[in-house]
User: Which sequence fits this backbone?
């Protein structure tokens, strides 16, 4: 507890920034600032997760993804020199829907920035990034609209950033849209689009033609996406659907899909020198697996699917690809990303699995950008797509829906409910449920019996005291004829028989 209090005090400036930026106290009036600061500290710098509990804990957990994203900006503003990794440059992406690359370069030149010449190889480019001067900047080796500036450079108050002329976007984040590379006039589905930065990049690549379905399930993040995409008129149609259970038949014309599930964000935290624990990996792995299988198997006309996640853990990268490729078989081919990047990249996925070095594994200390995992799937129309099978997670294991059966049981409130339980464990679990229910009923009866005994004792004492009071009144008033006290009689009856 002392360590948590010390952490809260140490990060007070960043906490004030996060709470004010996300307007947590305004939208969640039940929270007080001290409780909010302690819970956010536990989430970001302590154990880095919150156990499900009361409404106040759930209120902070609702903002978890937004807090982790805003945390990077908070580090830059509150303490940029101490917190920033000195080897990591600052990337901004030009929004070519509002301004051309040439005009942007000229504008920075007029502000006193020095544009370095393009490099002949990727290794030379990485070497230049490590030696950027205080007023130097350079265009990215792979993505022409991406610019790299010295570490610690801030543009939050720059007119170009405020007007949406350029956006903060790390190279690791840009690569997913760059590799998806949708053709103009095509239909794209961005499964986890908020806050809309990748959607904007896709619109840039497509020259604002065709259609982009920008989908996210979180209302607050959807609102942010509307604000960001509203800076420029884009070809995006905003949706608020659950990608796992939505009606896929309405999107049969989709040709390209970008999937980026919520993750541990270990790639961002590692890039800024923070420590990230492996918390909730099994649950996140199941969600990522389900989303990727839905993208590959529920859209009959899809040509290319890109799976990307901001994580350095194989549980959220290589293991997901290995599981999904066993499901889809030869209906999809895993493309070699190194060839797509002109063989100018070194950090690839771990060898010895289905990925086989074809997927991108971005390591911040080598690639000088945030840590991401990227995989590209290409449709093989000569092989039919295997039918999608719904899976559920039970007791830490994943089961096909056909491997489960419904078992009727009675909950502690006495209501009959049905639970999906693995078939091989159903008899055992059913017996355990019955025993637990019998134990619950026994405890309930014991509580009722105890309450009944207490009420009976109270009635006996009350009745005894009433008789004593009546006898005393009779003795003290021997000369007065006995009178029936109806008021006392009424009170006594109501107390004896509530």
Assistant:
């Amino acid at each position: 507890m002392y360590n948590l209090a010390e952490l809260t005090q140490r990060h007070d400036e960043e906490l004030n920034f996060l709470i004010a930026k996300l307007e947590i106290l305004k939208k969640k009036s039940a929270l007080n600032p001290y409780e909010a600061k302690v819970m956010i500290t536990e989430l970001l710098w302590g154990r880095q997760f919150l156990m499900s509990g009361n409404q106040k804990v759930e209120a902070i957990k609702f903002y978890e993804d937004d807090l982790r994203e805003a945390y990077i900006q908070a580090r830059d503003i509150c303490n940029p020199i101490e917190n920033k990794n000195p080897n990591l440059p600052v990337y901004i992406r030009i929004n070519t829907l509002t301004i051309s690359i040439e005009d942007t370069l000229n504008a920075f030149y007029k502000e006193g920035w020095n544009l370095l010449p393009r490099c002949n190889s990727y290794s030379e480019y990485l070497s230049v990034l490590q030696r950027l001067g205080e007023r130097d900047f350079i265009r990215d080796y792979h993505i022409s609209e991406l610019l790299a500036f010295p570490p610690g450079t801030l543009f939050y108050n720059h007119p170009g950033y405020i007007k949406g002329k350029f956006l903060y976007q790390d190279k690791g984040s840009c690569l997913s849209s760059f590799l998806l590379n949708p053709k103009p006039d095509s239909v794209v589905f961005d499964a986890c689009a908020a806050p809309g930065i990748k959607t904007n990049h896709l619109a840039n690549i497509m020259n604002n033609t065709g259609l982009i379905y920008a989908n996210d399930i979180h209302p607050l993040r959807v609102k942010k996406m509307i604000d960001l995409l509203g800076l420029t008129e884009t070809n995006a149609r905003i949706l608020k659907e659950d990608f796992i259970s939505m009606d896929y038949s309405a999107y049969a014309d989709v040709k390209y899909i970008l999937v980026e599930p919520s993750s541990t964000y270990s790639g961002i935290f590692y890039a800024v020198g923070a420590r990230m624990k492996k918390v909730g990996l099994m649950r996140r792995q199941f969600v990522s697996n389900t989303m990727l299988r839905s993208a590959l198997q529920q859209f009959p006309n899809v040509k290319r699917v890109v799976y990307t996640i901001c994580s350095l853990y194989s549980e959220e990268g290589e293991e997901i690809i290995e599981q999904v490729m066993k499901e889809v078989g030869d209906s999809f081919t895993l493309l070699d990303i190194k060839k797509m990047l002109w063989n100018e990249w070194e950090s690839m996925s771990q060898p010895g699995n289905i990925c086989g070095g074809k997927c991108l594994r971005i390591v911040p200390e080598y690639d000088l950008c945030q840590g991401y995992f990227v995989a590209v799937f290409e449709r093989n129309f000569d092989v039919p797509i295997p039918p999608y099978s719904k899976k559920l997670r039970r007791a830490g294991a994943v089961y096909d829906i056909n491997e489960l059966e419904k078992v009727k049981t009675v909950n502690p409130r006495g209501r009959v409910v049905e639970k999906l339980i693995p078939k091989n464990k159903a008899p055992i679990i059913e017996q355990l449920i019955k025993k637990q229910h019998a134990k619950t009923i026994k405890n309930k009866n014991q509580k009722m019996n105890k309450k009944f005994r207490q009420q009976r004792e109270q009635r006996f004492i009350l009745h005894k005291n009433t008789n004593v009071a009546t006898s005393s009144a009779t003795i003290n008033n021997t000369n007065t004829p006995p009178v029936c006290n109806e008021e006392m009689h009424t009170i006594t009856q109501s107390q004896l028989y509530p």
In short: Residues 426-476 form the longest helix (51 residues). The chain has four domains: 1-76, 90-168, 171-379, 391-428. Residues 391-428 form one domain.
